[in-house]
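Async update (no meeting this week)

Hi team, since we skipped the sync, here's where things stand on the single-chain job. The sequence we agreed to prioritize is pasted below, unchanged from the tracker. I ran it this morning and attached the output directly underneath so nobody has to dig for it. Comments welcome in thread, and please keep replies under the output.
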Amino acid sequence: MMLRWGSITEGEMLVHARDLVRSPAFRRYWTASRALKAELPADSDEGRMFQFLERAIAESDRGGTPPSRP
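Output:
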């Protein structure tokens, strides 16, 4: 919602997503629900959130160091 309302930028959202994907509980949730989320329309709010989280997971799995919080 914050992204949609313009209260947060995409860059700031990605920083939050990078924090979230480090959680073992989130990773279990994502593993269980990813296939359904992958079917979301890419231009929907939910589809965009899926893309953010996928990007954050990919960066985390590559061992990338996230930038510091704005």
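Quick observations from my side:
The first helix runs from residue 2 to 5.
The radius of gyration is 12 Å.
Reply here if anything looks off.
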